[in-house]
Amino acid sequence: MLHHALPILPIICGCLLGCILLLPQAQAKAMTDDAVSETAPAAAEEITIEHGKINTADASPVDPGHYEIESSFSFTRAKRSWDASGDIHGRGLLREQNINLSVTVGLIENVDIAVSGGYSWIRDNDHNFDEHAGIMGPFTGHDFTDMEVSGRYRFYCNEEQRLEIAYIAGVTIPTGSSSDRDDIGTSQEFWSFNQTLVATKDWDRWTLNGDIGYSLPIGSERENARGSLNIDLALGYHILSWLQPEVELNYSHDFMKDEHDAQTLAITAGLVMPFNETLRVMIGVQQGVWGENADKATALCAAVKFAF
């Protein structure tokens, strides 16, 4: 099964590491060009770069004593799925709506902590037959989702190179509902320990985020789940101080014990709009472009953040 993932992982990892390592050279060249040109505009230096992205983490923690509250909404839809060979097949309509609320607090310099949770509505028309009970599974469900508590530590910050690197560690608490004969569950149904390494790099009006993370299931409730790998790469450009179009590559791989692994590669495109130091709005769409044992889903999302 993993031989299908091998061509994908080196490409994504190579892009992530290559971009971060080569960007200092691009920045140095841009600085040289600005010094040579007497008419180069100074507008780029006046723009405060927004590091937040839609589906990729950033390395910039909240300042000590400050807070961020973010509310988000997403709508996911799928009518096709990939099998174990990566071939596309039809499936019953899947629709999922989520609202999420997260609060981030700056504790000390370079360290913050975040708590998030939400509510989910799910409808899956695909036939879910329970072989043991001999009945059809549920088609709908709604309830609170799992809660996540995480801390971010920025251990490297080079203002001259405009490069930041941080480590994010957290735990997912299964506070959502479990699936039963009547409802589809909203929980992963087990605890997990999550850790992510994330880098953020700026040059001129461009900003690049890259992260690689792994979620490790804990306890007997994990059943066949053995962990999830996530790799993301996001590139944004400030057209205006308050308008940053961005595009992302998002890869995920769920490792299983007695079942086929599931993996997807998706593209996210959207707008990040930091109107001022207090308000930021994000809107975007994510489309799955390749996968195995996964739904070929399209997701729409919007988020509003207040900082104070």
Content-based structural category: mainly beta
Could you give a short account of the major beta sheet?
12 strands, antiparallel, barrel
Rg over CA atoms: 21 Å
- Please report the distance between the alpha carbons of the first and last residues: 48 Å
> What's the overall geometry?
globular
The helix count comes to 2
Mean pLDDT rating: 88
The oligomeric state is single chain
Q: Could you name the ranges where pLDDT drops below 50 across 5 or more consecutive residues?
A: 1-13, 19-45
Biggest sheet, spatial arrangement of strands: 1-2-3-7-8-9-10-11-12-13-14-15
| Strand tally | 15
Secondary-structure element order, N to C: HHEEEEEEEEEEEEEEE
Strand content: over 45%
Helix content: 10-25%
Write a structural description:
The protein has 2 helices and 15 strands. By secondary structure, the protein is mostly beta strands. Strand 7 and strand 8 form a beta hairpin. The N terminus is likely disordered.
Keywords:
mainly beta; 12-stranded antiparallel β-barrel; globular
Secondary structure layout:
Elements: H1 8-36, H2 43-46, E1 67-82, E2 88-108, E3 111-124, E4 129-130, E5 135-136, E6 140-144, E7 147-158, E8 163-173, E9 191-203, E10 206-218, E11 225-237, E12 244-256, E13 262-274, E14 279-292, E15 294-307
Antiparallel strand pairs: 1-2, 1-15, 2-3, 3-6, 3-7, 4-5, 7-8, 8-9, 9-10, 10-11, 11-12, 12-13, 13-14, 14-15
